[in-house]
Design brief:
heterotrimer, A mainly alpha (103), B mainly alpha (391), C mainly alpha (164), A: 103 residues, mainly alpha, 77% helix, 0% strand, B: 391 residues, two-stranded antiparallel sheet, 14 helices, 64% helix, 1% strand
Chain lengths: 103, 391, 164
């Protein structure tokens, strides 16, 4: 197995773990953590390709990952603020109980 | 002769590394650097504890410790023996794994941060391209270790202290990094070795230190205030206020783990003072051109001792800041000042050298300071200072 | 596959599994931090220094602390009394296994992955800075705007409304 294939397999495994966590856990914060893990797995994918198959312009890989890190941080901030706001209303972060649209 | 004395540690390291077989030489060289750091800085820590206690004692009009050894010099030995032989109490409801790991995760990264600081000419343990970023990346594990310590003790006051400490640390990280960015902008490199080399010249009698420029002075003051806050030292030591919540996030720690927290805090102070010296005070370069015969590491440690003395002095003099005063100061005063300092540094760089450059520089730094200071004092009704005596 | 890769991969996968299966939320957040640190070690091993340090600074230094604060503000630090997996967990697990199977199959049977390895690209921080200021200045400004909007938005959403 080439090193590139090993890194891609690792990143897809992390992605699958993050997806499983986001789909099966009850707590809203853990869903967000699963999403962050998925974003990180995608970043690892980019850096693995940057190292082993950069193509003509090698700096694009680094740029993409830097912007992805920035966007993930912004999204985590807003997502957690939303969870805190929902908690204030429903008094719980259990997703099975937050199931009515009427406020 | 002068050069040999200056490079004596580097030459000794090369000589010692020559004894190892060729395949193991890189590892041996790194181990020697690590050993040097681990021997020097805890030794400096021991010296600083006794200096601090005696210095604070004199400021507060009392003697410091003076029982152990002449003038109390052997006090750190007594402290170390006490810390190692004291019983290690873990609260029954505490989270044992996290409680155990917190001091380790605090101490490890601060030693890592010391590795990129050039202690003398050619004497940085690691010389990487993004050295400054490495230093700033060694701070977050410390903040997380503070949280782990506070939460795992299962104690309300401990958690409160930990939350305050983290809020303070992340708030003051922003002016810290921004004031370092102005130096990086001027030098054009993130490597501390190159930053020191850019300040090693002399024009006449004056060194090219960044401290001796208007934006450099403002940047140095901002950096030092943020460094005091990052190390949780007075006047920013509300999270570990001894008179308020009795040591905050490390209430439930005793014995060796408490000594590890103490060590981690002081070594963090050394690391960030070392970075301040590298960025603004010219690292290992001498202040006057005819003093360059004194070895470079002597200058670095002299400046480090000077900064430590300043920390101790400020601790003994200023009262503690309240939490909301602290946060207001970080976000409403220091952040705008750091951004405007960046602008002042840029203007300084682009103008030709001369009197006009100094005038514009001083105006760009002092003007916002006065304006922001006035604006932040607007809504408060501060009357004349009155004294009440115990009659 | 070198020894460091195997060790780091084992550590990262173990902590990722721990994130998704532990009962106590704060333990999950701490395991997430270990995962982030493991990924940063991977980036450093692949030679992307700037990205590795930025990962530690942003993820460990900011996102992990954000998550910890949110857990504490929503009373998540007490151990949960009910089941931790939702009632439809089997479907979620099946979807995740299917996604992983698809990706692994693609990786194993791809013919373009067996090319020879080119030498490592050397990107200095100065090059990254130059590119950010010349070719990628628009994404840089947009992400600055995005972060400002996220900051203001998060503060407004999470602000305690005054009783009217």
């Amino acid at each position: 197995m080439t090193p590139l294939a090993a890194y891609l397999l690792l990143s897809s495994f992390l992605f699958a773990i993050g997806l499983a966590g986001a789909l099966t856990r009850r707590n809203a914060i853990l869903v967000l953590i699963g999403i962050e893990l998925m974003l990180n797995a995608a970043n690892l994918n980019f850096i693995a390709f940057w190292r082993y198959a950069p193509g003509s312009e090698a700096v694009i890989g680094i740029m993409f990952v830097l912007f992805s890190i920035g966007v993930a941080a912004a999204e985590a901030a807003v997502g957690l603020a939303l969870i805190i706001s929902i908690y204030r209303h429903y008094k719980t972060t259990n997703l099975d109980q937050i199931n009515s649209m009427k406020g | 002769m002068v050069d040999t004395l200056d490079q004596i540690f580097v030459l000794a390291k090369h000589w010692l590394v020559g004894f190892a077989p060729t395949a193991w030489q890189p590892i041996f060289s790194i181990l020697l650097s690590v050993g040097a750091i681990v021997l020097t800085f805890p030794g400096l820590f021991a010296l600083t504890t006794i200096l601090e206690r005696k210095g604070l004692g004199r400021i507060q009009n009392r003697y410091g410790p003076n029982r152990v050894g002449p003038f109390g010099i052997l006090q750190p030995v007594a402290d170390g023996l006490k810390a190692m032989t004291k019983e290690d109490i873990v609260p029954r409801a505490a989270d044992k794994v996290v409680h155990f790991l917190a001091p380790l995760i605090l101490v490890g990264p601060v030693f890592l941060a010391l590795a990129v600081i050039p202690v003398g000419r050619n004497m940085a343990a690691i010389d990487i391209d993004a050295g400054l970023l490495f230093f700033f990346a060694a701070r977050p594990p410390t903040e997380l270790a503070v949280f782990m310590a506070g939460w795992s003790s299962h104690n309300k006051y401990s958690l409160l202290g930990a939350m305050r400490a983290i809020a303070q640390m992340i708030s003051y990280e922003v002016p810290l990094i921004l004031s370092a960015v102005s130096v990086v902008m001027m030098v054009g490199s993130l490597s501390p070795v190159k930053i020191v080399e850019a300040q090693a010249g002399y024009s006449g009698l004056f060194p090219h230190w960044f401290l001796l420029t208007p934006w450099g002075l403002a940047g140095f003051l901002l950096f030092m205030i943020a460094a005091t806050a990052e190390s949780n030292r007075s006047p920013f030591d509300l999270p570990e206020g001894e008179s308020e919540i009795i040591a905050g996030y490390y209430i439930e720690y005793s014995g060796f783990k408490f000594a590890l927290f103490f060590l981690g805090e002081y070594i963090g102070m050394f690391a960030i003072s070392g970075l301040g010296i590298t960025l603004f005070l010219g690292g290992w370069s001498a202040p006057l051109p005819f003093l360059t015969w004194i070895p470079s590491y002597v200058w670095f440690f002299t400046k480090l001792l000077g900064l430590i003395a300043m920390f101790i002095w400020i601790r003994g003099t200023l009262p503690r800041l309240r939490m909301d005063q602290l946060m207001n100061f970080a976000w409403k005063f220091m952040l705008p000042m750091a951004l405007l300092n960046l602008l002042a540094a840029g203007v300084w760089h682009l103008m030709p050298p001369g009197l006009a450059r100094w005038a514009v520089g001083i105006l760009l730094v002092a003007g916002p300071y006065v304006v922001l200071g006035r604006a932040l004092f607007e809504g408060r009704k501060l009357g004349k200072r009155t004294y009440q005596y115990a009659d | 596959m070198s020894v460091t890769f195997v060790i780091l991969a084992a550590l990262t996968i173990a902590s990722a599994v721990a994130v998704m299966t532990l009962r106590n939320l704060v333990h999950c957040a701490l395991a997430l931090t270990v995962t982030f640190a493991g990924l940063a070690a991977f980036y450093l091993q692949l030679g992307a220094q700037f990205v590795g340090f930025a990962q530690v600074l942003v993820y460990v230094g900011a996102v992990a602390i954000l998550i910890v604060f949110a857990i504490l503000l929503t009373r998540g630090s007490e151990p949960p009394t009910e089941r931790i997996f939702s009632s439809s967990w089997a479907i979620g697990a099946a979807i995740a296994v299917a996604v992983f199977g698809l990706l692994a199959g693609l990786i194993a049977y791809s013919r373009s992955l067996t090319r020879e390895i080119p030498p490592a690209p050397t990107i200095t921080v100065r090059q990254i800075g130059d590119e950010l200021m010349s070719r990628y200045v628009l994404p840089l400004e947009v992400i600055g705007l995005l972060l400002t909007a996220a900051l203001i938005g998060a503060v407004i959403i999470a602000m305690r409304e005054e009783a009217k």
